[in-house]
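tool=predict chain=A
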Amino acid sequence: MDQGLVTNPKDLERMGHELESLERRINSLEDVEIEVMERLEEAQTTLDSTATELATTEQQLADATTARDTRATDINEE
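tool=predict ok
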């Protein structure tokens, strides 16, 4: 189009409309991509937080199990 190889005005008009349509579609897809990236970031933050909570809970469970076992040993020795 820019090089002047297409001389038919109707073809040029159709190509121009197609370019506008493609630009709108690209913009729309870029907006969707940004939304998906934001949702992914939120999900990753939630995952990290949940993983930290899980690690803390597992440590508390291990500590409680150790305390229980120690107390059970003490009771059996008495």
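The mean pLDDT is 92. The two ends are 96 Å apart (CA to CA).
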